[in-house]
């Protein structure tokens, strides 16, 4: 089957029931999405399919019909995405394991809602778990990303 991931076409030989996460990591070398739970409950494996956040651990690769974007390609022209920049400025990451999924969910939120309320943030980020408890920093980073994005950074 052929998939478009991060702007590249990949021809892969995989069981259509294989989770997208394993196709990304094992067959395409995309190590940003992480395995956390395997049941779409933690969000560590979040990627975008046609711009919408999905849990790649539970999506069979044979059901993927759109363009897949991983954290490896959300920046533009060698620059960090405003959400990534905000994550650094707010020093969000502690262990860092969940951060790729958190960032991908935040990017999708800001693509949908330019200036989200606290309730919008809670709704969009509710399926992403952080064992380190950096939720206040995550919220601050999303709010900072709004400012950075508006400024064209």
- Say which CATH homologous superfamily of the largest domain is assigned: Beta-grasp domain
Biggest β-sheet strands, sense, barrel: 3 strands, antiparallel
Report low-confidence residues grouped into runs of 5 or more: none
- The name CATH uses for the topology of the largest domain is Ubiquitin-like (UB roll)
Helices and strands, in order, run as: EEHEEEHHHH
**What is the molecular shape?**
globular
Strand content: 5-15%
Give me the count of strands. 5
Strand order of the largest sheet: 4-3-5
Structural class: alpha+beta
Overall description:
With 153 residues, the protein is of the alpha+beta class. The protein is 36% helix and 12% strand. The strands form two sheets. The protein has a three-stranded antiparallel sheet, with helices on one face. A two-stranded antiparallel ribbon has the order 1-2. A hairpin with a 2-residue loop joins strand 1 and strand 2. Helix 2 crosses helix 5 and helix 3 crosses helix 4 (118-125). The longest helix has 16 residues, at 135-150. The radius of gyration is 15 Å and the shape is globular. GO terms for molecular function: 2 iron, 2 sulfur cluster binding; metal ion binding; oxidoreductase activity. This is Isoquinoline 1-oxidoreductase alpha subunit.
